[in-house]
Amino acid sequence: MSEQNNPYGAPTTGHLWDDNLAELTNQPPKWWMIGLHASWILVLLYGIVYPMWPWFGGATQGLMGWTQIGEYKQDMAAIQSVRAQYEDKLPGMSASAILADSELSEYVVRSAKVLFGDNCAACHGGGGQGNPGYPNLVDDDWLYGGDIDAIVATVTNGRMGMMPAKAGVAMTEAEIDQLAAAVAKGEPTSSPLFMEKACFACHGMDGKGMHALGAPNLTDAIWRFGDGSVESVKYTITHGVNDPADPQTRNAVMPKFGDRLNETDIKKLAVYVSKLGAN
Amino acid sequence: MNDQVDKQAHADELYAESHHWHVNTGNETIHAKRMPGRFRNLKWAAAAVWLLFFMGPYLRWGDRQAVLFDIPGRQFHIFGITILPQDVWMLSLVLLFFAILLAVVTSIAGRVFCGYFCFQTVWTDVFTWIEEKLEGTPQKRRKLEEAPWDFTKIRIKVIKHTLWILIGALTGISFTLWFGDAFEMWQGYLTLNAGAMAWGSVAVFTFFTYLFAGHMREQVCFWLCPYARIQGVMYDKETILPAYDFKRGEQRGKLKKGQIEEGKGDCIDCGQCVAVCPTGIDIRYGQQEGCITCALCLDACDSVMDKIGRPRGLIRYASMDELEGKPALKMFQRPRVLVYLTILTLALAGIIYGLFNLSGIEVKVLHERQPLYVLQSDGSIQNKYSVKILNKTPQDQQIRLVVEGLPNLSISGGEGSLIANKGRITSYTVFVRVPRGSLKAESTPITFRVEAEGSEELSSSYTSMFIGPRP
Question: Which of A211, A251, B92, B430 has the highest count of CB atoms within 10 angstroms of its CB?
Answer without folding.
Answer: B430
